[in-house]
Amino acid sequence: MAKKIILSGNRPTGRLHWGNYTGALENWIRLQDEYDCYFMVADWHVLTTALDKAPEIRRNSREMILDWLGAGLDPERSVLFIQSEIKEHAELFLILSMMISMGRLERNPTFKEQIRDLNLGNEISFGHLGYPVLQAADILAYRAHAVPVGEDQLPHLELTREIARRFTHHFGELFPEPEGLVTKFGRFPGTDGNRMSKSLGNTIEIAAGPEEIAQKLKTAFTDPNRLRRTDPGDPEVCAVYTYYQKFLPEEAATCAEECRTAARGCVDCKKRLTEGVVEYFAPLRERRQHFVDRPEMVAEIVAEGCRRARAAAVETMALTRAAMGIG
Mean of the pLDDT values across residues 289-302? Predict the structure, then answer.
């Protein structure tokens, strides 16, 4: 039997960080053996909230693809492509935009959060409001059965499911209603204890070297009530403990116990974490450098991924137009 299809992507805003890795990339790598995978550089999506970043998109896309390859995405098992190279996404976006109301888009909770967090006021572009419709087009262009997402993207995915149902109601069944595959570490803490985000300046890149990792972990958030080395701590409020759970799980229980009993201080805890994380990401850094040294190989991988993605999207659009009786 043919494998089911998944589609996911990242906006190219530069190198990926630990939150990107635990919230998406690590999961993608596992899914390569279970699904036919399409992974997209979502460059058009950058423009919805950061039009001024357009000149940086090409460079940031390359950095992100290098991180993908370094982390273990395999172009032999997955289709790695750039959204803007597949013009069928724009055509499907136009068609699907006729199947959702303005009111429904405005009620999207993720949209409301972005308006608040970005302090946009009334300066909201049509593209930003229609972001989830373009996202639906990205997914449905490949008739994906599932989408690996963070928790914050589930409302957008529900809109995709609604749009798929609306199309089925009017024109017959063509698009599956994609399921969300949510990872355990959907919201990963940054060095300040808040959600890891470039906008907050609290990230650690997955390709960071040992010195950078050590420097950033020195300031990582720990229990604010543990004022002295001899004070017992609460690991559940500590970002460092979360890092142990993810990257050194075999030592997490000991870390927690020695924190609660004050048997280990925060300085020593961070020192051991640094050693473990540097070792954890060493293979990624080595693979990434392999591709950095071979730019022609990376260009070929992207070109082939775009060719394969476009072939699938062209087929979907032919079926879409036929179902609608418009072509």
Answer: 98
Q: Does residue 195 belong to any structural domain of this protein?
A: no
Taking the C-alpha atoms of residue 42 and residue 11, their distance in angstroms, rounded to an integer, is 5
CA 145 to chain centre: 18
Please name the residue that has the structure tokens 């589609």. Answer: 7
Give yes or no: residues 78 and 44 share one domain.
yes
Structural domain boundaries, residue 135: 5-188+295-324
Six-digit token pair at 278? 């540097």
Same domain, 88 and 25: yes
pLDDT at 120 over 70: no
Let me know whether 95 and 229 are in one domain. no
- Do 31 and 175 lie in one domain? The reply is yes
138 in a domain, yes or no? yes
The CATH number linked to 279 is: 1.10.240.10
Residues 214, 132 share a domain: no
Task: Name the pLDDT band for 32 (thresholds 50, 70, 90).
Answer: very high
Model pLDDT for residues 151-196, shown as the tens digit of each residue: 777 877 999 999 999 999 999 999 999 999 887 666 789 999 999 9
Of 8, 78, 6, 16, the closest CA to residue 40 belongs to 8
